[in-house]
Amino acid sequence: MFNLYVPPKKTTKLNLLIFSILHPQSDNNMTQHEVRVYPSKEYLAKEDQLAYKLAKTAIYDAPISPEVEDMVINRMIDNASVAIASFGRTPVINARAQALGHTRSSQGGNIFGLPNDIKVHAEWAAWANCVAVRELDYHDTFLAADYSHPADSIPAVLAVAQQKQKSGKELLKGIIASYEIHVNLVKGICLHEHKIDHVGHLCPAQAAGVATLIGCDVDTTYQAIQQALHTSISTRQSRKGEISSWKAYVPAHGAKLAIEAVDRAMRGEKSPSPIYEGEDSVIAWILGGKNAKYYVPLPTFGDEKRAILETYTKEHSAEYQSQALIDLAFRMKNKVDNLGDIHSILIETSHHTHYVIGTGANDPQKMDPHASRETLDHSIMYIFAVALHDGKWHHVDSYTKEKANTPSVIDIWHKIKTIEDPRWTALYHDQDPDKKAFGGKVIITMKDGSTIIDELERANAHPAGARPFTRKEYIQKFLTLTDGLISTDESNRFLDVVQNLSNLSGAHLAELNVQVKSEIFDKYPEMQNGIF
User: Fold this and answer.
1) How confident is the model over 504-509, as a mean pLDDT?
2) Alpha helices in 438-517 (DSSP H)
3) Most CB atoms within 10 A, among 172, 223, 415, 528?
4) Helix 154-164 and helix 246-266, axial crossing angle in degrees, nearest 10
């Protein structure tokens, strides 16, 4: 159990002792792999390196249960939902325009929203589609020692599958592999502690998924994973202070790097090695240093890859730690007779929520009515205020400049403070997926001194929440977010195709694209003032 924010000098001994107690070498068919720095004079065989073990895990053939296949389909529906909903947003328009500067005459990747006969190079299709999926901060999440949005791998694997005309079954295996690598890296290695952005786990997972899809051998996959990690390290400034649209581009940048890494590895190119354990490696100089040890869990060779079942999507378009608190705000609104009579609001929550999206971040932008949407969706003070004020949440309306500048919203917003409570931090790090929780306790103090107190451990849509998302809810989210943007026929067509994923031939993977109405496409012309 790693505390994400313990200063680096304090991370190794105490946390590793706790971890070793909680994590025996084999737990629930998962094997813990120790990862540390090896001086150049201390030889580490390729087969003992983490990147090689990740490669072996990604590509080995394993049974796929119906529940895992169903969840992959759910996440493909989820990605399509949020990608189409963001079709007209500026970052998505710009990413799409860049991709259209790299068209192909025949086989290529498709771009969400555009006609299927438009093909672009796979890495550029992944670029455009990753931005579209990520823009609204509205798809799946996994939180452990670090943070992640594992569905960010799907556009990369899908684009390459379309270009190489792989089958639906091969696509399924690639997506499952990317989830397995991503989730288990997030369990074992904390990037945020060292202010490294979580694309450092995403890009190797994207490379692993693409390599698995194509059918690369273990050595090629190993080299691709190492290249992907080496080229994708960046800082978390993209999620600090005045957050910009680059937050939506980060997974797209990883996707391009990953696809190019696999391409180079397939041509026989090698990588910096060992990328995790080397004397001048990522761990040695960017993460915990030469004395650090990490433990990454991986399934026993041959076992089913089930990591996707531990992930969870969002019912509301906002940072995941706000999901339960939005639900709680809805519930508490019914207990407050007059919002103007509120004196103060205290949110007791986890370390992450307090220090990243709460007042513990010490970011004045999180309290600024003129802040960007990307900043506001990482401000629990703003999010809770709007949810309490409106009793509802909308991926567009809840973030408008008018909403952020509404005096009654600002009045509530500026009365909110967050603090860390060890109980909520412990729940955040619980190793049991059914006990792990990302909620909080809210104390509303009224001007007459009375208090209204309530708490919620996990979002209603969480697998262990009050109303877990099932296929029905994923489809409803799709229908809601695409309403008015695509035709009924197109909606029905896509839902029929995606739910038949494992039976699709390579020639039919383009049908996993969703095309917007022609009038919607014409409404958002591609901008032509770039280089491409």
Assistant:
1) 94
2) 471-482, 488-498
3) 223
4) 40
List Cα–Cα distances, 252 to 72, 199, 227, 232, 244, in angstroms: 20, 10, 16, 11, 15
pLDDT of 434 above 70: yes
CB atoms within 10 A of CB 408: 11
At 22, is the secondary structure helix, strand, or coil? Answer: helix
> For residues 364 and 85, what is the distance between their CA atoms, to the nearest angstrom?
30
Average pLDDT, integer, range 157-178: 98
d(CA 296, CA 291): 16
- What are the sequence ranges of the domains in the chain? 8-310, 320-456
* Six token digits for residue 108: 């290529």
Residue carrying structure tokens 């591609």: 526
Pairing outcome for strands 416-420 and 119-120 = unpaired
- Smallest Cα–Cα separation from 340: which of 276, 407, 281, 246? 407
**This prediction's pTM:** 0.90
> Residue-wise over 170-179: b if at least 16 C-beta within 10 A, else e?
bbbbbbbbbb
Rounded to an integer, what distance in angstroms lies between the CA atom of residue 138 and that of residue 10? 34
Q: Which CATH number fits domain 8-310: 2.40.110.10, 1.10.8.60, 3.90.79.20, 1.10.4100.10?
A: 1.10.4100.10
> What is the DSSP code (8-state) at residue 152?
G
